[in-house]
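Weekly modeling sync, notes
Attendees: AB, CL, MP (scribe)

Item 1: holo prediction request
CL wants a bound-state model with CO-5-methoxybenzimidazolylcobamide before deciding which constructs to order. AB pointed out that an apo prediction alone won't tell us much about the pocket. Agreed to run with the ligand included and paste results into these notes for async review.

Input as submitted:
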Amino acid sequence: MDKLVEQMQEAIIQGQVSEVTAMTNKALETMAPLDVVTKVVAPAMGRVGDLYSCGEFYVPEMLLAARAAKAALGIVKPMLAKGNVKPMATVVVGTVRGDLHDIGKNLVSMMLEGAGFQVVDLGIDVPPEKFIQAVLDNKADLMGMSALISTTMPQMGVTIKEMEKSGMRKQVKVIVGGAPVTDDYAKSIGADGFAPDAAQAVAISKRLLGLN
Ligand code: B1M
């Protein structure tokens, strides 16, 4: 692995915001912004998850690492959005009720924006009624839900059921994602699409809307 990539990953894992900021700026002299996301931030946060799982990291360490990851993402975000053409569709995205994880959802938002979508990002802990209202207010073509915990994942199905009840389900395509989510799970709750990562979220969103 490239030495700088390795050092950046380590700095994210250790939550060193200023080092991550400096190294990200340096890396961007030679590295594509998307590579910072896929080769540095995503794998580093994966390792943070492993460290948490095996009891080496606790919540404070995860928070510090997440802050450092966000510092890197804050730098690359405007670059990913560059080269943007006129919005081709509107998408409402958010992390479901009870779930505070937003790094993956932010990556998905950034990539969609970069691909030319207008993104309405509702943030974290989004209840079904807020998703529904935002879709209606923005006349969204697509709605994206992210969930990172097995106990919050069912909120995606709850939201889809509420959309059905309110009679607006057919007006909007629904895509879901997040580490515990699978294609089968997405189908079982009636979502139109599932994406395992941010790049595929763009490809699948385009496909669902017939934009390819
Ligand atoms: Co939490 N956490 N966390 N955490 N956390 C996980 C998810 C966990 C797997 C860690 C572990 O045990 N190994 C575990 C869940 C276990 C389970 O579900 N059974 C867990 C837990 C338990 C918790 C708490 C309960 C801990 C506690 O308090 N005891 C708590 C819950 C808080 C809550 O949400 N109510 C908690 C809190 C936190 C922090 C706040 C400290 C922090 C979040 C900070 C933040 O997001 N601002 C945090 C973090 C950082 C993690 C891990 C380490 C990393 C998540 C991440 O950012 N990954 C995570 C472990 C892991 O996932 N390995 C963990 C990087 C990101 C790029 O990947 O989010 O998967 P990901 O997104 C990908 C794809 O999934 C996909 O594209 C993204 C980019 O490629 N994708 C989509 C995501 N959303 C999509 C939507 C789409 C399409 C694709 O369409 C709309």
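Recorded for review: The domain at 2-82 is CATH 1.10.1240.10 (Methyltransferase, Methionine Synthase (B12-binding Domains); Chain A, domain 1).
Action items: CL to compare against the apo run; MP to circulate these notes.
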